[in-house]
Amino acid sequence: LRKKMGKKNPTDTADPVNNFERWKKKYNKTKTRVKQEKTQKRKPEWQVEKEGIILLGRARRINAKDAESISCLGLTFLLFTPGLMEAQYRQPTEIQRQTIDFALQGKDVLGAAKTGSGKTLAFLIPVSTQLAGLSDLEVLRKVGKNHEFSAGLIIGRKDLKNEKIHRTNNIICTPGRLLQHMDETAAFHAFDLHMLVLDIGFADTINAIVENLPKTRQTLLFSATQTKSLKDLARLSLQDPEYVWVHEKDKFSTPATLEQNYVVCELSKKVNMLFSFIRSHLQKKVIVFFACCKEVQYLLRVYCRLRPGMPILALHGKQQLMKRVEVYNDFIKKKNAVLFATDIAARGLDFPAVNWVLQFHCPEDANTHIHRVGRTARYKEGGEALLVLLPSEEECMLSQLQEKIVPINRIQVNPEKLTSVQQKLEAFLAQEKEQRRGSCFFSYLRSVYLMKNKEVFDVFQLKLQEYAESNTMKKTEKETKFKEAKKVLKRNFQVNTKLVFTEEGHMVQQWPTLQRTAVPATEGEEDDGTTGINVEELEYRRKVKEKHREKRLKEKAARREASKQHTEEQKSEEEVVAYLDGADGEEFDPSTLPDPDKLCSDSEEDDDQSSHAAGMRKRSLSDCSDDSGEEDEAEGSRKRPRQQAAAKPLDTGLSLAEDEELVLHLLGIRR
Ligand SMILES: Nc1ncnc2c1ncn2[C@@H]1O[C@H](COP(=O)(O)OP(=O)(O)OP(=O)(O)O)[C@@H](O)[C@H]1O
Predict the structure, then answer these.
(1) Other beta carbons within 10 Å of 510
(2) Which InterPro entries match (predicted)?
(3) What is the DSSP string of 582-617?
(4) Which of 114, 197, 200, 378 to mutate to test the pocket of ligand 1 (most atoms within 8 A of CB)?
(5) Of all atoms in ligand 1, which is nearest to the CA of residue 93?
(6) Gap from CA of 118 to ligand 1 centroid (Å)
(7) CA-nearest residue, atom 16 of ligand 1
(8) Cα(122) to centroid(ligand 1), Å
(9) Nearest alpha-carbon partner for 416 in 279, 235, 230
(10) Across all residues in the chain, what is the average pLDDT?
């Protein structure tokens, strides 16, 4: 050692303490380095990646002006990364990689990427950063620690006053409801809005909202089907926006892992086809899209009754928000299940591990198709989609899909694999209330009639009679005039009266005929039908009445018995695990099911029909709810008095001329 030291610096050899100190310093330095290296090696994968993600935000052109946001950025990532790691977000996806830093620089961003590619996080991180950046450090620390950003879901279906929109700093809302607050909630203003995130659509409403927002805001626009339409951009007054179109050069506009096919099928055969499909995919997770709420509700009852052998759930706009969330969570948890849904589930909702998307009817347009099929094959997963088209829809829809570069092939249904459920269905239909059957049928027709693209959706091309007879409107005995009159009475209609005066000046009511009185006609006076008594007839009537009474009592007892089972069956309305065996011989009493059809809502607007024009990203389960505060269907029917409901005029949402045209057509077909 001395030799070595002497070589280096001869003077040092004289002072061993000095030597020792130097050695110790060097030793400590090496020790720390080795320790650091070891720690680095032991660092969990997530921590290394976390640092990578932080760098992602810092890497691009961030100038001095943004120095403040850099510190926010670091903090924000620290704030959110445990959550991200927990959620298995290891690497940013392409849309996240390309948009987050633009957004963090305060730029307006237009981001387009396929369904399931992670757009939600691409705007959630900047939104969260923005919120954090608004506070000072102390507040930020507090907020970050507890993640207590006040967020509000503003979606209607509640009393306007109950939505505390002015007390939240992060609002997720449907455009219609936001506009309503802008108009009606005095305490709400948006002049200090910092960031607007939206999915384009609902043109008029968005125009009106944008008018109420400050020009200096930041706007992030994300979609799976985005265009660079100048018209759209002009109305949003974007400032020098950054376009990020991740899959612009891709061959197709839908995920590469998605396989898409279509079949051509007559309307009257669709129910058989769907049943056969479900029967041959019992171990899968399937979403089936229908045209309207009524159809979902009605076919849910039908299919549960047919007992396909797997759970069936339903998600539609007439459900309360809590119910929708419950169904959503239920479906996510299940390994195999079918979800019957309207377009409320078509956009933005992230259902993991869905194997199939089946469209029972043609979607409104190619964009709706892209969003619907996008509920499967999400984030690197595979998936399949089947579109069921009517012969009249095939040509036009295909050309629309081609235009949007959606790859889809025609396949034939193997007739041997088709199960006919016609007989079972007829038995069920015989028991089902006609009002329910009719309501589903007309709702479907109405939804077709309301579609803008008349080339694809021609209600006059539909073979209505076949469809009606096969699936929804089993022929029933012709209603007697008596029944009709009874209905009229129930609806509390005021019937006109016809009064005439005799030559003597007495007033006699000719219509409706008066009850016979028990006052015997005075001698010599002719029985004119309004007075007098016929004992034989009275006796006969009494007997008939007695018989009717007995019958009524029996029916009442039977109903009481049935209603005991009702509680259990009610549950199974939303979700039924059905098994094929044992189904056939069983008696089914439809009155044991809750009546989901509101008495006056036969022609009410189906609020899901316009859901293709989606609202905010990330679209919530509550989107598409109408703002009328309409109650959940089943509850609504219980609470609303019958007479009131019946007296309410039908509002089809069509113009008078359109109403007339549709009605005439339907009458023509059914005559
Ligand atoms: N960086 C990531 N790492 C792993 N998984 C991710 C990442 N980003 C998103 N995901 C997951 O990918 C799935 C799809 O994400 P997301 O719902 O944001 O897609 P999207 O682009 O908004 O789709 P859509 O347009 O259909 O709404 C989600 O389950 C999400 O958790």
Answers:
(1) 11
(2) DEAD/DEAH_box_helicase_dom, Helicase_ATP-bd, Helicase_C-like, P-loop_NTPase
(3) T-TT----GGGS---S-TT-TTS--TTTTTTS--SS
(4) 378
(5) 1
(6) 3
(7) 118
(8) 9
(9) 279
(10) 70
What separation in Å is there between the alpha carbon of 263 and the centre of ligand 1? 30
**CA 303 – ligand 1 centroid, Å:** 32
The residues that bridge with 286 in the sheet, in sequence order, are 338, 356
Identify the band that residue 632 occupies on the pLDDT scale cut at 50, 70 and 90.
very low
Do residues 437 and 295 make contact, with C-beta atoms less than 8 angstroms apart? no
Type of residue found at 475? K
What angle, rounded to 10 degrees, do the helices at 293-306 and 434-450 form? Answer: 130
Give nearest CA residue, ligand 1 atom 25.
Answer: 115
Distance CA 594, CA 253 (A): 43
Prior bond to 618 cis, omega within 30? yes
Residue identifier of the C-alpha nearest atom 15 of ligand 1: 118
- Nearest atom within ligand 1 for CA of residue 89: 3
**Residue found by looking up tokens 């016929």 in the block:** 534
Is the distance from CB of 391 to CB of 264 less than 8 angstroms? yes
Between the CA of 218 and the centroid of ligand 1 the distance, in Å, is 23
Residue in 127, 350, 370 to alter for ligand 1 test, most ligand atoms within 8 A of Cβ: 350
Spatial distance between the Cα atoms of 570 and 327, rounded to a whole number of angstroms? 15
172: which residues sit within 8 A by CB, 6+ positions away? 151, 152, 153, 154, 616, 618, 620
Q: Is the separation of the CB atoms in 408 and 260 below 8 Å?
A: yes
**pLDDT for 103:** 87
- pLDDT, greater one: 267 or 571: 267
Q: Does 223 score more than 60 pLDDT? A: yes
Lowest mean pLDDT across 97-111, 175-189, 246-260, 568-582: 568-582
Q: How sure is the predictor about 460, in pLDDT bands with cuts at 50, 70 and 90?
A: low
Residue 261 Cα to ligand 1 midpoint, Å, equals: 24
Structural contact between residues 404 and 370, judged by C-beta atoms closer than 8 angstroms: yes
Handedness of CA 207, 213, 216, 218 (dihedral sign): negative
- Residue list, ligand 1 pocket, CB within 6 Å: 88-93, 96, 113, 115-121, 224, 348, 350, 352, 374, 378-379
Q: What's the gap in Å between 230 CA and the centre of ligand 1?
A: 28
Question: What's residue 253's pLDDT?
Answer: 93
Q: What atom in ligand 1 is closest to the CA of residue 224?
A: 25
**3-class secondary structure per residue, 473-486:** CCCCCCCCHHHHHH
Give Cα separations from 56 to 96, 100, 591, 635 (angstroms): 10, 9, 61, 51
Q: How many helices (H) and strands (E) does the chain have?
A: 23, 15
Please tell me whether the peptide bond between 512 and the residue prior to it is cis, using omega within 30 degrees of 0. yes
Residue 569 CA to residue 112 CA, distance in Å, equals: 45
